[in-house]
Structures are given as C-alpha cells and as structure tokens.
Amino acid sequence: MPTGNPPAKPGADLPDHPSFLWRNPEPASSYDVVIVGGGGHGLATAYYLAAVHGITNVAVLEKGWLAGGNMARNTTIIRSNYLWDESSGIYEHALKLWEGLEAELDYPILFDQRGVLNLAHSLQDVRDSVRRVNANRLNGIDAEWLEADAVKEICPIINVSPDVRYPVLGATYQPRAGIAKHDYVAWGYASAADRLGVDLIQNCEVTGIETSDGRVTGVNTTRGRIAAGKVALCASGHSSELAAMAGVELPVQSHPLQALVTELLEPVHPTVVMSNAVHVYVSQAHKGELVMGAGIDSYNGYGQRGSFHIIERQMSAALELFPIFARAHLLRTWAGIVDVSPDASPIIGLTPVDGLYLNCGWGTGGFKATPGVGDCFAHTIANDKPHPYNEPFTLERFTTGALVDEHGAAAVAH
Amino acid sequence: MSADFRLPSGGRIDRDTRLRFTFNGQSLAGRKGDTLASALLANGLHQVTTSIKYGRPRGIMAAGVEEPNALVQVAEPFSEPMLTATTVELCDGLVADGLVGHGRLDTEPDTARYDAKHAHCDVLVVGAGPAGLAAALTAARAGSRVVLVDDQNEAGGSLLGRDDYLDERSSDAWVCDVIAELAAAPDVLLLDRTTAFGAYQDGFVLALQRRTDDLGFDAPRHVSRHRIWRIRAKQTVIATGAHERPIVFSDNDRPGIMLAGAARTYLHRYGVQVGRRIGVFTTNDSAYHAAIELAEAGMDVPVLIDARHTVPPKLSAECATRGIDVYPGHVVTGTEGQERLTDVHIRSITGGHADTVVCDTLLVSGGWNPAVHLFSQLGGSLRYAPELGAYVPGESLSSARVAGSAAGAIELMACIEQGAEAGRAAVTAAGFRPAAEIPVPFADARADEAAATVLWRVPGSENAEEDTQFVDLQRDVTVSDVTRATGAGLESLEHVKRYTTIGTAHDQGKTSGMLAAAIVAEELGADLADRRPTTFRPPYTSVSFAALGGRDRGELYDPIRVTALHDWHVAHGAEFEDVGQWKRARHYPRQGEDMHAAVLRECRAAREGVALMDGSTLGKIDLQGPDAAELLDMLYTNMMSTLKVGRIRYGVMCGIDGMVIDDGTVIRLADDHFLLTTTTGNAAMVLDWIEEWLQTEWPHLRVFATSVTEHWVTVPLVGPKSRDVLAAVAPDLDVSNDAFGFMTWQDAVLDVADGIPARICRISFSGELAYEINVNAWDGLALWEALINAGEPYGITPYGTETMHVLRAEKGYPIVGQDTDGTVTPQDLGMSWAVSKKKADFIGKRSFSRAENLRPDRKQLVGLVPADPTVLLPEGAHIIESDHLPEPPVRMLGHVTSSYDSAALGRTFALALLRSGRDRIGEKLYAPVDDQLVPVTVTETVLYDKEGARRDG
Amino acid sequence: MQLIPCPWCGPREEVEFHYGGQAHVSYPADPAALSDEEWARFVFFRDNPRGPFAERWSHTAGCRRWFNAVRDTRSYELHAVYRLDEERPVTT
Ligand SMILES: Cc1cc2nc3c(=O)[nH]c(=O)nc-3n(C[C@H](O)[C@H](O)[C@H](O)COP(=O)(O)OP(=O)(O)OC[C@H]3O[C@@H](n4cnc5c(N)ncnc54)[C@H](O)[C@@H]3O)c2cc1C
Ligand SMILES: [Zn+2]
Q1: Radius of gyration (Cα) for chain C, nearest Å?
Q2: A316 at C interface, C-beta within 8 A
Q3: Which of A153, A343, B42, B922 could form a cystine bridge with A405, CB 3.0-4.6 A?
Q4: Between chains, do C43 and B657 touch, taking CB under 8 Å as contact?
C-alpha cells in the first residue's frame, strides 16, 4: 500500500475485489446444461443450478466479456414494490435473496437499502400510487405513501414547491429498496459458480441451436460445437435472435436504453428517486457519482447507443426536480439493449422445444430480479417445470390473454 | 509562498491586464489569457490538490483537457464543481480550491442562462490546429458551408504551444491569415471556446460553447453562459490532435512532473517557466524540442534521459551545446520530493549504475495518443499502430474523416497536408468541387531524426513492496492494481477497468487508458493489435446539466395548455389540477371553504339548480369523408354507421387487445361528417390512432381526421334549471324535451353579444338534464358570462373536475384511466350494451374471445357503499373477503377506483373493480385501510336516479 | 440522432418522428377466423432482427404521414424509405 493520508472521503474507494475470480477454461465438448449469456441472470442461474440443485456440469457461454451487457450498464435500482401479485411474488423473492446475498456469495456487493421513492405528479398518479402501496402491503412488502413534505424529509434536495411544472404531490416509498454495485454482483455470482465447477466461457458466441426430434441437443459457437442436455437462454436484448435459432418466436422488441453518470460529488442524494411523469430516476452511487437513467429510445436498435435528445430531455427533467443538479456535470453516457415485452413483464419458463428454457423480456428492469431469476430459472431447468414464482410468466400468456400488465396505469419502469 | 515564474516577455497573454485571484485561500495574480493552471505555474505553484485514495500531493501535469490531476472546485465568479485548472480561463476575482476527489454542488440555484442552437453545414471541422485550419480553408474555398469549432480561446491548436515557422513567418501569422479569410467567407461559422463533445450518426455533432466564462463578474446577464450547438454536417473532419502519453515509473505522480508538450505550451503560450531546474525523460524526439526551448528560455536543463539507445544526432548535439546531458538508453526509475519534486533517479535501461539528478521539474514524453474519441463515438473502428504505441482510426467512414495528429500524423507539414486533403475529400463528398489546392505552407519544424520507441512502464522500478507506479493518477491506480486484476483471471480490458476503476475518473482515462491497455496486454502476453480498446463514450469532456437542460426548464419544461376561459377561472379563485398538459379548474372554493365543502356545494347546485363547467379540454376530432361511418364502425365497439344525422351516441374504443383505451361521444353532422370527443388526456393519442389505421391499414377509406380541440369552447350546463338558462340565452331555440331530445344536437345563434353561433348537444355526464354548449373559442368568454348572468336567478354555480367526477360516479359512469387501467374490457365495465353484436369486426373484437376474457372471475366495475356512511374509502384501497386481516400474501379481490362523499346520496360511496363483481352485489366485503378493516357492501354501479328520470328534466 | 428522410418532406430530425415497429404486418382479413394462437401472433409478435429491418415511421411533427423504411438496427443507417403502398425495396 502506498503511503499517504487515509482516504479523504468515505466512499472514495470501493471494497477490493478478491485476488482470484475465475478460471478461463477451454469449452468442453459437452455439458448437462449450457446457459447462453453471461449477464447477471445467466451467472446467477448457473450459481443456483450448482449450489441448490447440485448440477455442476454447466457452462455459461458469453459472446463478449462476462457481464458486459446490460448487467454492466444498468442503474442498479432494486425494489419489489410492483403492482400485481405475480410481479410482487418474484421481485420480493429476489429482494429477500438480495438481503442475504453478500453473505451467501461472500462478496462485497454493496447492497444498500437506502429506500426508493416513486413520485406522483398528478391526481391519477396519486391514486395509482396508493393502490400500489396498498397492494404491496397486503402482499407483505414494505411500502408507504408519503405526502410531499415527508418526501422532502427523506430527500431534502427534491423540489416539492408547487411552482414546478409538475409539482410533487407525494410518493410511494419502499424503505427496503435500494441499489447494489452491478459488477460486484455479477462477479460474486461468477466466482461462486466457478468455485462450484461451472465453466465460464467468454468470447464464445452462440451461432446456432441444434435440435433433434423437438429436443435440444447442443449449440454451435464461435468456439466450436458444444453438446448440451439442456440449453437455457439468458441473452436479454439478444433473446429474439437466439430463440429464432431454435425456431421459437418471441413477443419482445430490442431497444436502446441509455444511462449516464456525473463526476464524483460529495454526498447530496441519500436515497433513490424515480418519477415517471417527469422522467427521472437517480441515485448517488457509492463512489459519489450521480447515476441517472434516461428514457428508452423508441426505435429498435442493437447498437448499444441511443439518441442524444433523450439525454437532453433527461437533463431538463432532472433539473425540474433537483435544481441543485444544475452544476453537476455529465461525464459519461452509454446504452444497453433492452428486451421489451408487450406487458412489461418477463417471460420465464419452458418453450415448445424440449430442453430449451427461456428467460427474457425483463426490459428496463431486470437487474433487481437477478437473484430471484437465478433461483427460479435454475429450479425450472433442473425440474423441467416452472417454479411457482415464474409460473405466471409463460410465453402462452400472450395467447390466453393472461398478461401481467405492469405498464398499465399504475406501473413504473426500472 | 509564491515566486515569479513569468518570463519577462513572450507568450500570448495580455501582460497589461492583471487579474487577481484566490487559490486555496492564497491571493495571487495572473494575466488575461492565462488559464488557472498557467497562472498558478507563473506563481511557482505546482501542487493543486491531494489524491483521492492515498492523499498524495498532486500537481499540474498537462495543459489541456487531458489533465488527470489538477482538479479544482470553483467558488467565484460562478460556483462549479470539478473542473481542471488547465481549462479554467482566469478572470478577475476567480476563487478556486484544489479538489480532493469529490466536487461539491452549490445549494444556491444556478440562475445563469443556457440555450441551444442548431447549425447546418456541409463540412464541420473539429479542431482549429494546423490540420483543421487547412481542412476548413479548403472546404470554405470550395464555397461550402463550413463550421469550425475549437475548444481554445483562439485558433492555432498545437501551434500555440510551439515556436514553429510556416513559410518563414511565425506560424501565428499563417493562423491569422487563415482565420481572417474564413471569417470573411460568407458561409463560415467560427466558434471558439467550443468543444465538440458528442458525435452521433448522420453527421450530428454536439458542441458546448462557453460564451461568458472568461468575462468573470463582467459577464452580461442576458447572454447565455453556455450554449449547446446541435450541428448537422454532411461531412465532418475530425482534427482534434493528440494527447501526450506519460510513462509509468515509481513516484511518477509528484507535483513538478509534467508532460513535455505541456511545458512547451506554458512557455510559448503563457510565457511561464514551469520550473528552474528541469529534467526531461522521453521515448521520442519531441521532448528534445522541449528541452532545447526551455533551456533557450533560461531554464536550467541538466539532463535529458532518452529510453532509446539511438538518439537523434542533431538534436543531441544541440542539447550538448546548451549544457543538456543526454543519457541514451536510460530511464527514470523513481523520484523524490514531498509537495514538489526534488530529485530524479535514473538508471541505464539495461540495469547497472544508478544516478540521482536534482530537479524541481521533470518533463515526460511517452509518445502521443491520437484523440480518436469522436471518431470512435461514431462507431469507427480503431487499429493499433505499433510505431506510435497508440490506437489510430482503422477505417474511413463515409461522412467523417480524421486528419492530422488525430490520425497519427506526427510532423507539422504532414498534418497540414492531411487537413487539406481531408477538407478536399469532405467538400467533394458533400457535392462541391474543390477550388484550386490551397497552398500548403512550408514548415520549418524538423522531421524526426530517430524512430520513437514505445515504453509503457519502466521495467524494475523502485519501491518493490509499496507500489507507487501510478497508471491512473486520478483514481490512484497503480501497476500492481492492474497485475492483481490480471492475476484474478481477468483478461478483458473492460474487466480490468472495472476491477481497478482505471479510466473512470473525470478525465475518462485520456492519459491512462492506453497505458492500462498496454500493461494488461503485457501481463497477458498478448499483442495489442489483437485486443480491443475500451469504448469511447460521449461526452468527450464533461458538460453541466444546466447547459444540457438549456431553456427547457420550469414553465418551458413542458407546454402549459389553458382554455380560453382560463383567466376567468383564475379570477374566480379556482384551484387547478394538471391533466396531461392542461390546467383544469378542479373546484371553486368560496371564502372559508375547503375542497370538500366546495364540492358538496357545487354538486348540490348541479343536482338541484344549475351549474356549469369548462369542458373545453375535451378532445375533439372532426372526421369527414364518404367512408367516415365505415371507419367509425371499426374504431368503436358500438355501431356508429346507423347513427342518424342530428343525433349523438356514446362510444367506447378498445385496443387490438380488447382493452378500453378511450371513450366519448360521436355526433353526426352530416352523412359524411362526424365530430368525436375524446378524454382530455387522450386526444392526441386518439388522433394518432385514427390516422395510423387510416393510413396504414385502410388507405382505401376516404376520410380526413382533424383535431379541433382548441377551436371550441365547450360548456356543460347541468341541472334541473339548465333548460331555463339555455332558453334565456337561446330564445330562438325550442328547448322543450320533444323538440330537443336527449342525445341530439342543434345549431343555434345565441342571444349573446351580436349573436354568437353555437352547437348545442343534449348529453349528460351527470345524469341530470344537461346541455353541452360549444362555441368558437373566441366567443367562449362571452358565452360563459352570458350563462352566468342568465343563471343568476337560479344560483348558477361554476364547478370543477372534482364535482364532475362525483356526479358521474353517482351515475356509475367510469372514467377511462381512473376506473380502467389498460386491463379492463367494456364488458368488465358493464358496458356490453356498447359492444355491437352485429358488426362483423371492430378493433379489439377478436380479443374478447380469448380464454382470459371469458373467465367468470374477471374484475368488474361495481359500486361500494361503506357500512358507515361517513367513512370515505381511499382511492386505491383494496377489497378482501375476510373480516380479519390474514397473514400476507392476502388475497385481494380488487380495488377502489373512485371514491367520494355524495351530497345527493347523503353518504360516501365508491366505484371498484372487483373480481366476479357483478355476482357479488349485495355481499359484504372489507377494505383494509391503515390498521382497520372497513366493511363495505357491493352494489350496482348506478347509485343515483337508477331509473334515469332526471335527465329529461 | 438519426436524420430521417421523410418521403414527402425530406430529411428531418428524428425527434419529429414516431416509431411504428415492423412494417408489412397487415390487419387480418378475418380476425374471427383465426385461432387464439394466430390472433396472438398478430397482436403481440413482431420481428426483431439485428440488421436490416423494414419498419414503419410516422412524421408526426411534420406532414403526419406514415411511411416505411429499411433501417439497419445495428448501425441505425437508413437504407431506404418508401411509401406504404410500395414494395420493400432491395437494399444491399
Ligand atoms: C441503461 C439501463 C438501465 C437499467 N436500469 C435498471 C435498474 O435500475 N434496475 C433494474 O432492475 N434493471 C435495470 N436495467 C435492466 C437490467 O439491466 C436488465 O434487465 C438485466 O441486466 C438483464 O439481465 P442480464 O443481466 O442477464 O442481461 P445482460 O447483462 O445483458 O446479459 C445478456 C448476455 O447475453 C450475451 N449474449 C447475447 N447473445 C449471445 C450469444 N449469441 N451468445 C453468447 N452470449 C450472448 C450478451 O453479451 C450479454 O452479456 C437497466 C438496463 C439498462 C440498459
Ligand atoms: Zn413528412
């Protein structure tokens, strides 16, 4: 350690990663389970397959660098205060797992339950918010409705004065919600899975899925053919392409979603604030930068970049609610590719092809579900049967009409 | 303690204008034209701050945006967190402090102005250095529209920091000539202090112009402080130069250690000596010029340490004549000093004898990294150039080209030639014929004599167990942090970046990125040519939120829409609510009334006498054409084609998924002419919806749809006395029930002012006898006041949206968006009567027969009455079956969508979406509210005037 | 930020347009004749290719007309715009 004074400010520094993370094995010729996509969901699924179900002859195939997709690009908001029972089931399951995850993975994932505020700006927002709060409480999820002055107490920098264009009429508050450090989460799962014998294989793009008699038999990759008893897709924005390789069509569309950070700032923002009407969601990350999500670009896109007017709009929105941010500087913007489903709910479960499992459609909000998805999807793969928490999220629901419509009036993205 | 390091002459500063400033509490002076960094150096101050993690003293390392160390927080004249001293222009009264890691946001509101401007051009040139100037001149002479942006306060780029001659004149003269010619050209826009920070597809480049920062306290308030330029260029020439690369060695972070090119810039541009006794450490020829020029300027330059064994013969000889000892094949292995460098340790690169040189300054040059940021943002791929030890553009893009040292060129003549060539190619691609070639001036700058070598880090540096070989100074990341990452199994540069946080600081790795990439490759035994650099992301340099927010703040954040009667409402004390972009009067409290009291009073007036409201925000769409009726039959669940001229029908619209998206009335004006109303919030959506179907699916239908929302003022006149009031203002109209029946409309000329034309619809959203009077917007106020006058004998009362809600809810009329949420069908609302069984098809019909829609336990709209008639259920409360609250998860049957205290019913009531709701009518259920369970009884939706007797008066 | 050449107005800023997803998906001639699966396919399923994509745009803040475009979803490059009644042009 170099000498000098101790860190000048708390949070100036992040905890160290362990000095060993994972092996970089050559792909074997065959695995019991091949997971396509080494994002948070793929890695968590691999971990729970090994840790809970004892299935360790598993490979995670990642076309780029591990967890370099949306997992590396999201704004890390974690909450479970969704409207519908089906959603609160799986998101709350995830949140409970988050609460024990640091210990389980033995990794400093910086899960920080600093609370999330979802602001209401119109009378209908208020109705929808109260409805969601009440539903959450009956589902055993911590939730409160706060009037504007109570919002101000929790987050003093919010402008709650009535003279903003869309005044803050109140907010829902979930105290157990918060943020975590995305890379740390991914690497925690990755190294734990690696320790349990899972092969993490990078720079390995799946280019084809082999089936025989309606059953999956293996995948073709840029690193050769790999036989597989089961194949599980965790490819977020690339899900359509992959499913198509097995002849499965998906009702999802891939869009750019952007986010941005500022320079490191002294602590100003103690919680997480989200607003749909004045499109803002922002937190101050552990190091001190403000992390802010921007709106989704309307068009389909795989370019991992979006349009700048979305960022500009984002800035005006942020300044409406947080005048103090005026002097903050935009330091870096980026985009991920999110897989948006028609009802803003995920699709997790079996497919028409035996041995092929699907996890997609998380769109703008799947980071928070990472442990829950991992656990439930692993269960689904291991038992060839959905876990009760993901049972409602079938592909068939689009045929029956049993949607879980989370972007109806009462919902919030991310 | 400060001392004078300003040379008696030279530099481009205005020596007559002395500026006072305060840094870290110390009062100092500089000159106009200084940056904060050059002013500090002129005062002999190198240390600016201490580092974020280890608290080590840090100084000024560069002279531009690539500065990794010299972070400052500016307090005056304009408070701003985290800027680099090298980019802050000095102004009188500047107050700044060195910043340790974290900036501080001022709580005082930022009241400066910010704005944005669009510019369109044929050729955009980014960078007014030699390459950029040549490109701009070539493009301008071809007669194209040119925009030239440069982030400095004057053109010249790297020439500003050198003493080269062009055509035997000072390069300054050439720059002045070019700028003069460009300025005189008709279609050239020159923008200085303007940083292009983002490049997007189709020639879209964003730039930030700092318009008043240099004026300090004298900045005029009416001029925007910063301006965002949104530039659309057919062709872009990227001539952004290169950033000098440091070399990693032990204790390479002490104040006094600086990039060699920066020292030249401080000398030539600001007339500043960066030290008294200066060592130089280099891998290439360029630092020889620094050594020689600094020595010429009177500084003591004892040593030049060159990592190469083969040194440039002529330059070495020139060094020798100035007493500079050149050490070929040597490296710096470490340094000493606390707040300032005192000694430099040197050693032969192959090991062996070590030496110590006393120096207060060490200039370092590890070569140059082309500033490929904008090119990379455009998606241009990069190629590793081993001779430069850097990434260069690896392909040519159809609408952007890179020239000069941004493309890896090293020599001045080559830069100018490349610039001219890029300018020529750009104008040609933009459709112009280039004029005769511009004369490329002859540069006296000498070609490199000896090939550069590439050295990332000094092998076997000192301090074995305590690594102080910094790769990223701002993040305090050392070589051992990098090797720890690769040792952990990380191979991707992105992973190492995240493991170590290299490249994530304010400078975004401008000086550290290449070093990190190279050290990782070395550790992995990989070839840089086979590896991908990390992606460059916008913005190139940081931009304040305020600048990006521009003028779209406060009232201009989103348009405010008000009706023609808005001022009347304001004058009469209305409280407003936001509905979409509209301001709607919510209620009109009288002295001492709260909303509850006001609404009860307004409701009573509507039910017992007469009341009126401003309904102008209702969306109105005029639909004309021979096939309009056919289109309406597809758009609405009801049959509209059978509607007779003169009549009105209520209609429901669904999405293709069968869920209700809007409702309203349709009035038939003629066989081929209809007027539709929509909910206030959905007017634009419904027009879009109609046009989409018309254009994309049924272009054969001859129909035109026009929004006429703002053309009309719409006033519902409600209550048993409404007929009398109408009769008073429309004496020519037969208002009797027989002549003017329910769900019909009539045109009339009202006896108001000189007679105003009106369209009167007999519809009711309250269950009372009611009329909806529509007049031209400009007649709205006259109508309103006439109604108020005519209604005076009956106690006519204006009412707002809240009363409207109560009245309609008492009648069980749902509001789309309040009693529906995108998951509700017309059948769920109990509106099967509005769903045609006769029509073969309409939008949404097919979805009604999906399995989920046939379930008997769907949620249906019902009424609820609390057992205690004074208890008001909160909207958003849920309904459960049991009289005690079970453990979660509790089975919820549905939720309260609307809830009011009713004057007419003398009690509270609610509407709810309830599972199997219609089968539960009469059942007793419970609504958990706070810690209580409120017993409620399920009822029909219609609670008031079930027979509908009142609507005919 | 795309510059989108409206077939009627010429090149205009992306912000003037509304995106309409996959082109050439017609409303079924007889929805009642479709099975639930077929109907769900029409309502919810659209292609989502990485590469050239024939899609719909509407110039909402301009001439308000819908048109089709072939755009590469990787590079966002517009290869062609064409009227709704035209065939998808062959693009390279
Ligand atoms: C800007 C932004 C902000 C967001 N903010 C939030 C938030 O605040 N809260 C929240 O809960 N969610 C948020 N999300 C959503 C969240 O990031 C995603 O839902 C989630 O990360 C998706 O799961 P994943 O981590 O497995 O996806 P990814 O990390 O995207 O993993 C998918 C992986 O599959 C790989 N892959 C794709 N195709 C192939 C192939 N053919 N072969 C091999 N590998 C392949 C990809 O390279 C990628 O690594 C945000 C997303 C973005 C983009
Ligand atoms: Zn147009």
Answers
A1: 14
A2: no
A3: A343
A4: yes
Neighbouring residues of the ion ligand 2, judged by CB less than 5 Å: C 6, 8-9, 59, 62-63
Q: B411 to each of A402, B369, B406, how far by Cα in Å?
A: 68, 14, 12
Q: How confident is the model at residue B543 (pLDDT cuts 50, 70, 90)?
A: very high
Cis peptide before B539 (omega within 30 of 0): yes
Contact A192, A106 (CB under 8 A): yes
Contact B137, B144 (CB under 8 A): no
Q: Residue A7 — very low, low, confident or very high, per pLDDT cuts 50/70/90?
A: very low
Answer whether the bond into residue B889 is a cis peptide, omega within 30°.
yes
Provide the Cα torsion A198, A199, A203, A204; round to 10°: -90
CB contact under 8 A, B878 and A138: yes
Closest partner CB to A139 (pick from B468, B489, B889) = B889
Residue A165 has pLDDT above 60, yes or no: yes
Closest to B420 (Cα-Cα) out of B133, B121, B122 = B133
ω before B77 within 30° of 0 (cis)?
yes
Q: Do C73 and A253 touch (CB under 8 A)?
A: no
* Percent of chain A clearing pLDDT 90 (strictly above): 92
Assembly ipTM: 0.98
Chains in contact with B, counting 3 or more C-beta pairs less than 8 Å apart as contact: A, C
CB contacts < 8 A (A, B): 280
- Ligand 1 atom nearest residue A207's Cα: 41
> Considering only CB atoms, which chain A residues are within 8 Å of C12?
none
- Buried-state track B735-759, b at ≥16 Cβ within 10 A, e below 16: beeeebebbbbbebebbbeeebebb
A252-311 pLDDT, tens digit per residue, is 999 999 999 999 999 999 999 999 888 899 999 999 999 999 999 999 999 989 999 999
Rounded CA-CA distance A45/A50 in Å is: 9
| Nearby residues of B490 by Cβ (< 8 Å), 6 or more positions away | A21, B496, B499
Please answer yes or no on whether B79 and A319 come within 8 Å at the CB atom.
no
Q: How far is the CA of C14 from the centre of ligand 2 (A)?
A: 11
Name the token pair of A354. Answer: 């035996």
Q: How many CB atoms lie within 10 A of CB B506?
A: 23
Distance from CA of C45 to the nearest CA of A (A): 4
Beta strands in A202-312 (DSSP E): 206-212, 215-221, 224-233, 253-264, 272-275, 280-284, 289-296
d(CA B866, CA B937): 6
The tens digit of pLDDT for each residue in B185-197 reads 999 999 999 999 9
End-to-end Cα spacing for chain C: 22
Count CB neighbours of A73 within 10 A. Answer: 20
Question: Nearest CA of chain B to the CA of A363: how many Å?
Answer: 19
What is the pTM (predicted TM-score) of this model?
Answer: 0.96
Output A105-108 pairs: Cβ under 8 A, ≥24 positions apart.
A105/A47, A105/A188, A105/A189, A105/A191, A105/A192, A106/A188, A106/A192, A107/A18, A107/A184, A107/A185, A107/A187, A107/A188, A107/A191, A107/A192, A108/A15, A108/A184
Write the pLDDT tens digit of every residue in B432-450. Answer: 998 877 888 998 888 889 9
Q: Do C31 and B696 touch (CB under 8 A)?
A: no
Token match 């201009």: residue? B556
DSSP A151: H
Locate A97 and state its tokens.
């797992």
Is A326 in a helix, a strand, or coil?
helix
The token pair that represents B134 in the structure block: 């040549």
- Give the pLDDT mean for B327-337: 96
* Selected residues 119-148 of chain A with any CB under 8 Å from a CB in chain B: 121-124, 126-135, 137-141
| CA dist., res. A324 & res. B269, Å (int) | 37
